[in-house]
Amino acid sequence: MPPETSTSSAGGKEGSSGPSSKKNSKKPKYSKFSQQELPAWKPILTPGWVISIFAFTGIIFIPIGLASLYASEKVVELPFQYDQKCIPSEYSNNAEAYIKSTTTNKTCTATFKVEKTMKSPIYVYYQLTNYFQNHRRYVKSKSEDQLRQKSAEEDTDDCKPEARTPDGQPIVPCGLIAWSLFNDTYKIKVKGKHLKISKKNIAWQSDQTKKFGSDVYPKNFQAGGLIGGAKLNESIPLSGQEDLIVWMRTAALSTFRKLYGKIETDLEANEELSLVIENNYNTYSFGGKKTLVLSTATWIGGKNDFLGLAYIFIGGLSLFFAVCFLLMYLFKPRPLGDPSYLSWNRNPGMIK
Amino acid sequence: MSGWERVRTSSSSSSRSPHGMGSNAFRELPNRIPSSRTIQLGRVQPQAPGHRTVFCNDRDANLPVRFKGNSISTTKYNVFTFLPKALFEQFRRVANLYFLTISILSTTPISPVSPITNVAPLSLVLLISLMKEAFEDSKRFQNDLAVNNNLIDVLQDQKWVSMPWKRVQVGDVIRVKQDGFFPADLLCLASTNPDGVCYIETSNLDGETNLKIRKALEKTWDYLTPEKASEFKGEVQCEQPNNSLYTFTGNLIFQKQTLPLSPNQLLLRGCSLRNTEYVVGVVIFTGQETKVMMNTMNVPSKRSTLERKLDKLILALFATLFVMCLLGAIGSGIFVSNKYFYLRPNAGDEGSGQFNPGNRLLVITLTMFTLITLYSSIIPISLYVSIEMIKFIQCTQFINKDLRMYHSETNTPALARTSNLNEELGQVEYIFSDKTGTLTRNLMEFFKCSIGGEIYGNGITEIERGLAERNGIKIQENRSANVVQEKGFNFDDARLMRGAWRNEPNPDSCKEFFRCLAICHTVLPEGDESPEKIRYQAASPDEAALVIAAKNFGFFFYRRTPTSIYVRESHVEKMGKIQDVSYEILNVLEFNSTRKRQSVVCRHPDGRLVLYCKGADSVIYERLADGYNDIKKVTRNHLERFGSSGLRTLCLAYKELPPDLYESWNEKFIHAKSSLRDREKKLDEVAELVENGLVLIGCTAIEDKLQEGVPTTIETLQRAGIKIWVLTGDKVETAINIAYACNLINNEMKQFVISSETDVIREAEERGDQVEIAHVIKEEVKRELKNCLEEAQSCLSSLSGPKLALVIDGKCLMYALDPSLRVMLLNLSLNCHAVVCCRVSPLQKAQVTSLVKKGARKITLSIGDGANDVSMIQAAHVGVGISGLEGMQAVMASDFAIAQFRYLADLLLVHGRWSYLRICKVVTYFFYKNLTFTLIQFWFTFQTGFSGQRFYDDWFQSLYNVIFTALPVIMVGLFDKDVSASLSVKYPELYMEGIRNVFFKWRVVAIWAFFSVYQSLILYYFVSTASLTAKNSAGLTFGVWDVSTLAFTCVVITVNLRFLMICNSITKWHIISVGGSILSWFIFAFIYCAIIGKGNTYFVIYDLMSTIYFYLSIIFVPVVALFGDFVYQGIQRWFFPYDYQIVQETHRHEVEGTSRARLLEIENQLTPAEARSYAISQLPREISKHTGFAFDSPGYESFFASQLGVYAPQKAWDVARRASAKTKPKVHRKNDS
């Protein structure tokens, strides 16, 4: 048999049908691909597999969940919602007027207790609700080029309506995001002593080094009639304005937390903290809540019971299903591959 | 059924149908003229206004007319039209057009996404489609190029000059040599054969392998040499180019005479010259205007049912899209408010219109458009191109290269001629099959005979063998060692061979029997006059078989002249002496379907006048002389025995004619023959006068062998829930015979026979009033149908009632297809297990097919091998052509071509089923992955104040379909196998899942949609909720792009893992594609996030990956998302298993490779035995009392009927005379042997 036909001998005897036919033979060449005989693993979802997979998932997930939960539990988090507390009682029905007024005193003080020892670094967050930083008009209202380099100062097309001053000067940083920069400020005193809230390294490195230029300085910012939020120090380049950088990494949801600063000293349990809050930012018009959060962090990040609980829940559910399937198979067994289950055997009349 | 008949019937059918190919004035004309008239010959045909005039041999004179050149182009595009035309084709697809619209929309400010999101996938899809088009077109172009550059001899300056086909022009005189193809439609001027005759083979055109005769006009016979031909100056006026293959009208104005031209002078492009040294012809039609090219255009393209259902799914997706957009838009109308001061809703810039609470209607409208662009990914743009690719590979790599469908004897692999219908093969419920050449081999073999009341022939037919073995008798077949094996002769009985018949009880009968076989026919001998080399040109293979039989019995018919038949007889009286005997043929009484017999009056050398007659038993018995009752009775028994063995029978009889009686009869005959009115009828009447008082000699039995493995295949297909209808031109009895033989009908079935051969109808027919006949038949058919239907219903209502079978003949069918009766016919036939339609015309075949296709909305498949099956093949959802001995016509019209009927099982049960399964999976998976992806976006919309903010980065979204999830779905489209090929055939019932469309029902789609919603909710809400408090270990929080990138990562992983869950078999390619897809996402993200420095997603993936939270999420989210699917699959498999799942389980320990290889061997070696054993198991239990009459093809009447076209006067006799003229020069070789 000639060599080229011997490779196809698996296809039967035809391979050797003689030299005359070989010349013009249209016989397809044998290959595993074209004969659809590629070696394959054929998993069958037998009860054994189902139960083992569920059990396996449960066994893997529960420890992960427990570990996460443990890590999350170790995080000490002190939330303090102040949006209503910081409204003087005479304005309680008219919070918007209070916050918009330039004459009212916005300073507000409060005390609260540290329940557990908090190891440094302690992160200070502000949390807003019902605030749509992910709104389409809001998200796109910035100029990435302008933020990055001085030369693109005029590039404000996306920033409308906060693109230029009425006399046509470009606003740096332009756009609604920058314009609505959060401007509440916090001071924390322990035993009468001011705690230093560090503003260094509160933004992602990538933002700071690549997205915000070190030669771009604020210009014409909040100079118009409408003031949206905080003003910027015009002598510090944008890459140094970490508050702005944090704010401009827009949040995914309408409830979000942003890093305000870091406290580099430990707080003992039962210490009284007194807060001095400059309550400037208007969330009252749309009913947004403002919360100050002090939190420590572990390997998992901040307090995030949800993740651990979810793992444990799903792990538990898997084990539950493993047991369920086990019981089902026990009480309603079906012999594997029993031909009597074939539809045409079950109701033979089906085929006319 | 003979090949001749096919052409004839197909041409007549197409002219009957209004939508048949080009029913122009020229076609209508011939049909109105009775074909028996010869008077048209001299008449100048009326010219249509748009006739063409061709000046022969005069290029200059033809120049002003600007005839088209002879180069052909089958390409769709050229360099300039490619882009616009191909793009236009692409945008005729709704999905592409939609994405074009979306792409345009996304350049406007209302779009939340950059144009790249939609443009990138669209251009990629278009690019692939265009590349495919270009590739296919370039292949066509190369073919054309090769054809156009074939060489042909053209007359120039008294010399034959070889030049490529493309340079041939209208009016050129060219020479075509033996076995050469005609480069254009030619007018035959001269041939090297005497009488200007040439033989052509038209297999390229209509699949006929029999030779046809074309004849030059007598006036032009001399123009054979280049010197002479160059003197030829004439003018041809003829019809404009048209696509009718069998008509041609024109005149040759030559030497101031007008000579009418007919199709007989026309040599069509695509045919080839045979048995003729060369011919000289004038080019009439060139290139695209040749009849064959005009015919190839406008092949109707078919779309599969599944694809049409897919359109509905796409529509449903559009509806979903609309609802989603509407919800979002209304939400946005409610949301917009001045209280969100930071959005500056009424700042008055151009973008604020959409958020201005002052005009909520505008907000809603604009947001609607925004959302449409945002959710565009719900329409799977790459679906069509993926499916196309998959189907293309399925066709070219799997179907065309399947070794199990390769027929080594004819060297034919299977051929998928279209890649549109692969999955349709998996859903076929009705098969319409031609009989001859499809179920049977169309290879007639002389098998048995009965002479003088004695049966000769030891062969055992499949049916007999089966019957015997069913009764427990083991048949020992001991064939003699020296059996003559010849095509057409499969006879084994030493008593008759080698002159041994002399010792039989009645040698005289034997002699007459053999003489009758040798003399009474219209066969033409061809080639050398020696028994080994001679070839017989016969109208039907039956006739050839009989003449071959005579040859083998020692009565070798070797020459025919106009007046005589020469037979080389091994004579009885002079032992062993061979003697050439010439019989003078005085009259030929031809066969036609009313006479069902054929007679020849001849004068023996000793002066005796003998009439030999052969025909159907019914007509012969009526005309037998009184007496000889024993022989009649015995022979009648033999006929029945032959009939029930599935053999085709003919009775042979003779009669000595007293000279005076003959003379008086012959006068009448000549008178009738020369009459101009009702000649045929008069001839029949005259024949009736002499064909009586016959003496029965015996009968012949011819076997029409079944194709290999037909009964097995039919049984397998029936088990698969497929109903098989046989549509045949044969007589009722023959058809039933074959139906028994191939397992379609058995005696346990209840048979309904609706035949026009009832007394009532016959009486009406004898009265001859057409209107009355029609009325009577219709009433009869109606009554029969009603009765049958009632019976059928009572049968069906009883649980164990018998299976039903319906046999109906063409005439009744014609009336049953009437709109008023059609419903009844459909109801009846759909309840029948098997249906046999006999005596149907090609048109009726198509009508029956479309009755089921349209009336019952079932998926139909037609299979056939000849030109008469073309209409049926085109009418059915899937047309399958048998590419075997019969040529290409059916194949040309078909969607799939296979070499043998038995390969149908593989084609349907393996390839069809797999393709269906795969395409279903591809479609539903596409649906799922896009829906999930888009729903996540939808949920996000709710949390962005319905602003239409995009969730995914532009590039992520645009590459989702075309890169990150593209490959795996191709894998499932190519490699998924629920059960192996061998098990697919072993459990044909699995096929029913396709017929019931189990895998692409709305229920299936709904389940996918449900899990899609579930998964998207999990994916979105888990990722977003958990991210609220998610920070890295340095306390930094996530922004929107971090969350979306995380979600995107989870979606890619989930969707790819979900893919693995739909696979029945996982090859390394699955793993590679899934792993590769996920990996490609990460690689892309790494590069993309690092390079695009200013983008939102800059560095996002690195930031994400620096958190533990990311890893916890990408483990957790896909698991939870797939949790539901997993539970569902577990429960479904355990409690509601599909059939294929049970089969998988049963055979879970088998290694597929070996079992399949073994099966492959079995398939190749043992099939005949297997087939036999199946034949045995399915035999009728009682002997049916019918005889199979051989010459029942309607086309038998006239040998060259098919090519007569308008003029149709030639009878076999004329042909015989013409053909014999050719042998004249060889007369001296009389005693060579």
The strand line-up of the biggest sheet of chain A is 1-9-3-7-6
- Give me the number of helical elements of chain A: 11
For the secondary structure, the number of strands of chain B is 34
Q: pLDDT below 50 for ≥5 consecutive residues: which ranges of chain A?
A: 1-23
Mean pLDDT of chain B: 79
- Low-pLDDT windows of residues of chain B: 1-49, 1154-1233
Broad shape of chain A: extended
Write down the overall geometry of chain B.
elongated
How is the main sheet of chain A built?
Answer: 5 strands, antiparallel
What does this 3D model show about the protein?
The complex is a heterodimer of chains A (352) and B (1233). By secondary structure, chain A is of the alpha+beta class. Chain A folds into two domains: 39-75 and 300-352, no CATH class; 76-296, no CATH class. Helices cover 29% and strands 14% of the residues of chain A. Chain A is built from eleven helices and nine strands. In chain A, the strands form two sheets. In chain A, strands 1-9-3-7-6 form a five-stranded antiparallel beta sheet. A four-stranded antiparallel beta sheet of chain A has the order 2-8-4-5, with no helix packed on it. In chain A, helix 3 (47-74) packs antiparallel against helix 10. The longest helix of chain A has 28 residues, at 47-74. Chain A is extended, with a radius of gyration of 34 Å. Mean pLDDT of chain A is 84; it is low at 1-23. Chain B is of the alpha+beta class and 1233 residues long. Chain B has 43 helices and 34 strands. In chain B, strands 16, 17, 20, 21, 22, 23, 24, 25, 26 and 34 form a ten-stranded mixed beta sheet that branches. The radius of gyration of chain B is 37 Å and the shape is elongated. The chains are: A alpha+beta (352), B alpha+beta (1233). At the A-B interface, helix 3, helix 5, helix 6, helix 8 and strand 7 of A face helix 34, helix 35, helix 38, helix 39 and helix 40 of B.
